[in-house]
Write a structure and sequence with these properties.
single chain; about 220 residues; alpha/beta; Lysozyme-like; 2 domains; two-stranded antiparallel ribbon; 6 helices; about 30% helix; globular; cell wall biogenesis/degradation
């Protein structure tokens, strides 16, 4: 199936078309039906892509599974287009972020965690919807990357962290044809409705985007 876009030019996933069409057919109560179908669609047999236990989407990552309570099984980009990367800061250590994302009571997790030493853990497959942005629409259309440290400590954003995160983001942008710019690579603070401030004023966006562009160019070469 070719790519479909709405009136604003935004890509529309296969799930959105089918759910929207089904709700329209129902007529009365279509809005409620649409919401219910949205919740149930990912459970339909055959939607999930084949999964290999412990497989990672980024070969530089180590697999550490998040609690299933902190994400939703999906089939991206077929049911939701992946259009953004959201940059987070953990407000804690690498190990504490991994631990809390494994806690089913936490209710949130990102796809990746990047440490100050450059190590990368993948905790949720990119095809699944992580609860990381505090906004359902943004969750469904983005990949979340946590960075170990504190927003008010510029020294936490090390050279190794920037380099590792840039390689990770470059790969994501290449896989899903995401432009490397500030419209598509954003901070958690920029997500509508959020009360978070990360990655904070010390995150060097100019440096980071430059590293992402160089990493993407190097990968093509």
């Amino acid at each position: 199936m070719g790519e479909t876009k709405d009136g604003s030019g935004r890509r529309i996933g296969r799930r959105s078309l089918i759910v929207g069409g089904a709700a329209a057919v129902l007529g009365t109560g279509a809005v409620l039906a649409r919401d219910e179908l949205s919740r149930l669609w990912y459970r339909v047999p055959g939607v999930d892509k084949p999964r290999v236990k412990g497989a990672v989407d980024y070969r530089g990552a180590r697999w550490v599974a998040a609690s299933p309570a902190n994400f939703r099984w999906a089939d991206r980009p077929d049911d939701y287009p992946i259009e953004m990367v959201v940059v987070h800061v953990t407000q804690g250590s690498f190990d504490s972020a991994v631990k809390v994302f494994q806690d089913p009571e936490h209710g949130a997790a990102s796809h990746y965690v990047v440490g100050q030493d450059g190590r990368v853990a993948q905790m949720i497959r990119e095809l699944d919807v992580a609860y990381h942005a505090g906004n359902r629409d943004f969750n469904e259309r983005s990949i979340g990357i946590e960075h170990a440290g504190f927003v008010d400590r510029p020294q936490d954003f090390t050279d190794a962290m920037y380099a590792a995160s840039a390689r990770l983001t470059a790969g994501i942008c290449r896989r899903y044809d995401i432009p490397v710019d500030r419209e598509h690579i954003i901070g958690h603070v920029e997500v509508p409705g959020t009360d978070h401030t990360d990655p904070g004023p010390h995150w060097d966006w100019e440096r980071y985007l430059g590293l992402v562009r160089r990493a993407r160019t190097a990968a093509r070469a």
